[in-house]
Amino acid sequence: MTNLSVWLPVATTVLMLLTYEVTQFFMSRRNPTAISRTAHARLREQWFEAISRQTNSEILAAQALRNSMMSATMMASTTVLGLMGTVTLAAPSLNATFGHAANGLPQLNPKMLIELALLALLFSSLVASAMSIRYYSHASFIGSLPVGSPERQRWMPIGLAYVSRAGIMYSWALRHLILVAPLLASLLHPLAGPPVSAAVVALLYTLDRFDQSLQQK
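-> structure tokens emitted (217 positions)
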């Protein structure tokens, strides 16, 4: 395959994913209730508000938040394994590319671009998972405070913010893992990237839509 025939499908794969994510970002700003990630963030806030009005709900809140924290922990563990495997596979080629460019700028090629994008996605997924664990951990302490106590009321706004942020971070970690699939397909063959990318975008579009009519039933 010629250089252009390799660059074109690789660039198409990356641009499709970037375009979708940028579009979803602006849609979430324009109409938050139509996007799952922002609608679910509000759901978690309302759950925390509701459970904070019920006496003797501290154990239930702590258990729910602990389960969410364990899910984020499993996500982080999976991401670490993927990151270690990607580093192991990509290190020789990246070292050769940057090593030969000791006296100048390295020459970017499609394979190196995909490997760097894979590392970036996996690392950002790991960071998002770790932040989700952090927020869920702090929220569990707030949720276990006695309902109606002055301490619970004092930390209530922080608890609302933390459960919302934790869910958003978990969402980013999960979708970054999903976005790895088109890049892996491009590594196997450049022409496999665009169709897999289109399939992933279609899947994410289905998952990211929030049917507001169901909320009224």
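The chain has a mean pLDDT of 86.
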